[in-house]
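Response to reviewer comment R2.3. The reviewers asked that we include at least one raw input/output pair. We reproduce the pair for DUF1579 domain-containing protein here without editing.
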Amino acid sequence: MRFRIIVILCMLLAGIAWAQEEESCGNDPLYKLMDFWVGDWEVYNQNNVLVGHNKIDKILQECAIMENWQDMGGGLGKSLFYVDNNTKNWKQVWVTQNAKLPWGQKEKKLIHFKKAKLLVFQGEYMYKGSRVLDRTLLEKVSAKEVKQSIQLSYDGGQTWKTTFIGIYKKADQ
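Raw output as returned:
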């Protein structure tokens, strides 16, 4: 009986110690890096034509960010952004309903940032036997506007072709 009580007390103390070691992601400045993009957005092209809607949410007690994209043609995409504990760097996993196509699913990592102003995520995929570099630039324009550019490079990053520019405007404007 005494042994059981000792075991239970040890388990309780270990649980308390573990709970005290847990640190909230919301208190860590690294997890606030993408806060400027969180919200409900209407997305326009450079000609001010509405091209889609994007809802960006902090989830899992502020430890990750979920992107929910829908274009005006009904195309859907979802991203999960998270911090890799080993590298202390943000990563993105993007998947669409066209996941079997080379660009229908992607993984990128943060390669550059200017605090709370510009984030650059980059990854790669294979297309027709060639390596394609794919990067996304998220730039805070104002508290209610973000610019997203998606660029591709077929020559190892020497030249880049912009394939998408989205002007994000807060949906509640």
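Residues 16 and 84 are 26 Å apart (CA to CA). Residues 16-20 have pLDDT under 50 and may be disordered. Further pairs are available on request from the corresponding author.
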